[in-house]
Predict the structure.
Amino acid sequence: MVETDATKIMTALGKRAKAAAAAMRMTNTQHKDAALRLAAAVIRREMTEILAANAMDMKAAQANGLDAALQDRLLLTSDRVDAMAEGLEQVAALPDPVGAIDQLRYRPSGIQVGHMRVPLGVIGIIYESRPNVTADAAALCLKSGNAAILRGGSEAIHSNRAIAACLRRALVDTGLSQDAIQLIDSTDRAMVGALLQSDTFVDVIIPRGGRSLIERVSAESRVPVIKHLDGICHVYIDAAADAAMALKIALNAKTHRYGVCNAMETLLIHRDAAATNTAPIVRAMIDKGVEIRGCERTRELCADLNVGIATDEDWATEYLAPILSVRIVDDIDAAIAHIEAYGSGHTESIVTSDYEAGQRFLREVDSASVMWNASTRFADGFEYGLGAEIGISTDRLHVRGPVGLDGLTTQKWIVLGHGEIRQ
């Protein structure tokens, strides 16, 4: 596809999405929830067709030698399709942020000033492999009063088409514009570029995928992007840490799941806690099948264990695998400096019973989520009480950390008066 053709297609999609977004701003909660519940019912009713479409994608994935992990993400089963439908119902049950007013206060002039939550507008979602994202992303955009333009990976095109068709059917049957959810039907990469250049029609882009996708979106987009590149998460065991707690948190942060962005990738240990904590934690990690790469002091404390040499590259790596880098640091200042130098701004945790150390860590570590005596695995929209999330942002504007319904809205100022005029 030539660039001009992609631009024309994207312009048509964008115009329809813009009109749909304007209509969605005026749609009440009950109407949105009805559409989501009907979409869940349609997905369950059309499960056979969705699974047949997914089987086509899986056949192509196997023929093309798609990585086994990606094939697992691509695969749909009856349980996964039912979970997708249940996810739509869960979003319908969440509180609607649109129209909520806060910080309303009187001014000396007599007027009241406050904020009202409003939708962002048109949201472009670019994602890979997981066809359930088609339903999840569309549901969150719909509930927050936005229009969505979805561009899934070519490996899931048949699955995405089938799921999007169910969602659009529910919109029509409940009297909403089917253009509130649009799927870019072409697998041509030129369509991604056209979407990224559509700042006239698209208000924000949210990429969900690997590093290469995020880097391309960040480099090419003329539209604001909500993203995170890496999840290089740290746990710091302070001098005043309880050893049993430190072991429990470190093991959970690393071994609960490996291929997730909130898994610990580097363990930092205060030198005064190193003798007590290092070897037991390293031994427990190795028993779980984790490869350890440590600094020289770590290797000395674990001389009888199989600990490799950590390099500067290790400190800056998101492994997404059973590999952990371990470093002994002189104090909390050195721990914070290490995180500043090598971290990705995702999630960090301190284990300590020292109130001042805990407070310092919370204040001074500049990441989207900072924790005290808790596993980094809690950095998740569901665990934070958001109900669902569309992703995690390590940006500072306009939302940071897990992005739920509130993150898909913005605020406008409202003023309530009684005939006041400015003197």
Summary: The mean pLDDT is 96. The two ends are 61 Å apart (CA to CA). The longest helix spans residues 3-25. The first strand starts at residue 101 and ends at 106.
